[in-house]
Amino acid sequence: MAVESCGDIHALPEDCIANALSLTSPKDACRMSVVASMFRAASQSDAVWSRFLPSDYRDVISRAVDGSDSLLDGSRSKKDIYLHLCDHPILIDDGLKSFSLEKWSGKKCYMLAARELSIVWADTPQYWQWVTLPQSRFAEVAELLDVCWFELRGKINTNLLSPGTNYAAYLVFTRKSGFFGFDYKPAESQVAIHAHSHDDEDEDEDEDNQMSDEDDYMFPGEGMYRGPNIEYPRDTVYPKQRADGWMEVELGEYFVKSGHDGELDMSLMEVKGGNWKSGLIIEGIEIRPKKCK
């Protein structure tokens, strides 16, 4: 049986092609604009990229403190806005968070500044100090001077994130010369969801997903640096270098379900070793979609 000619597709109106492209993904739309000239103009249209932008993108951009609210002045196409948010995280909420988009999916990404975290002893100058680093996106970062009890926590509401998405939380940090104390005991991390309310039909499911300190549940110990001659658990996670020059270590992951409103609580602590620690510089905690291996 002969294959029917697909030449008639060239006669489709541009807005029809644009509507079809908007049902794909940013990655697919970009690919199709390269391989088929008939898709090129349609793939640039606001109709396509409006579907790829989060529904609340205007509200988020309006909270920018770094001049990025100019993105809403009407001079930019929706594709320009999308790509800007992918390549240039914007500072929002008094500069305590940054917001960006994952380029190939359009999923939301946030970073909580160190000032937005709860860090034990952070306001005691003999233990921590707040400094400015030119390579940080935030006005201040937290520098660890000397502590035995290392503990930090961050929180974000799940309704700020993209539903139907598996997210991971990462501590973003660097270290100074003289860094020490994190090669004795692995630090322990936890990512927990605390639901704001329960529907009767979802109550059991929410309780399964709701973890707290009282549950005595910890994700596997995750050492920030591997010391010599120390046996760590097999599932220990180690830091990785980031493209922006910082380092990161994964704290845990959580799947954000549609219609579930709760608070994602992320923490990292090392309080069992009893040894002094120093030289760690915290930029914040980043929450972004986790890539499949």
UniProtKB/TrEMBL annotation:
Residues 10-50 form the F-box domain. InterPro entries: F-box-like_dom_sf, F-box_dom, PP2-like. Transmembrane segments: none annotated. It holds the Pfam family F-box. This is F-box protein. The lineage of its organism: Eukaryota, Viridiplantae, Streptophyta, Embryophyta, Tracheophyta.
